[in-house]
Amino acid sequence: MFRHNSSSSMKYILVTGGVISGIGKGIISSSIGTILRSHGFRVTSIKIDPYINIDAGTFSPYEHGEVFVLDDGGEVDLDLGNYERFLDVTLHRDNNITTGKIYQYVIDKERRGDYLGKTVQVVPHITDAIQEWVERVAHISVDEDKAEPDICIIELGGTIGDIESMSFVEAFRQFQFRVKKENFCLVHVSLVPQ
Question: Do the bridges between strand 96-98 and strand 43-49 make them parallel or antiparallel, or are there none, so unpaired?
Fold first, then answer.
């Protein structure tokens, strides 16, 4: 398990789900964060919605529930509201990642000429953008005292195996090597029929 050490690297916990969506990944993520906070860790959260929408403001409420509006005006998935309540933190619009945000970021870079001489592809450009986004947001303070978090809990929405989440799955496969395996933990929530 993680040791509390202010000089250690950021720790990342990725929560995924299998078989069905809505299996409880958000509650598991919030609960893990609450347990870690009770042991003195500073925790932040990121929710990934692997949909092409830019934000949750245009999601179907029948499929995703109500939109949660953050203090900075970001329209995000309701899970971020659970994170804020469970963890007593103030999250930002960048704590919610969508496929649309990632693609828009990469396309904007391509249009500026950042990739001149390269063919822009899912691997490595989209997967690198996902990893860079997670690392950047994980270090942003979400507590009143403005201290940097120790642990970032990342919930990957949807279901493992869905085509829309494959670029995120690949990004995190690479990410464990980028941040070192001792700083990365995977929690998979699944339905076990009986």
Answer: parallel
Question: Which pTM does this prediction carry?
Answer: 0.91
Domain positions in the chain: 11-187
If one counts every other C-beta atom within 10 angstroms of the C-beta of residue 138, the result is 22
Does domain 11-187 fall under CATH 3.40.50.300? My reply is yes
Residue with tokens 């704590």: 95
Dump pLDDT digits (tens) for 10-68. 999 999 998 888 889 999 999 999 999 999 999 999 999 999 999 988 888 887 778 99
CA dihedral (115, 131, 165, 181) in degrees, to 10, reads: 140
In 3D space, the residue among 129, 141, 128, 123 whose CA is nearest the CA of residue 10 turns out to be 141
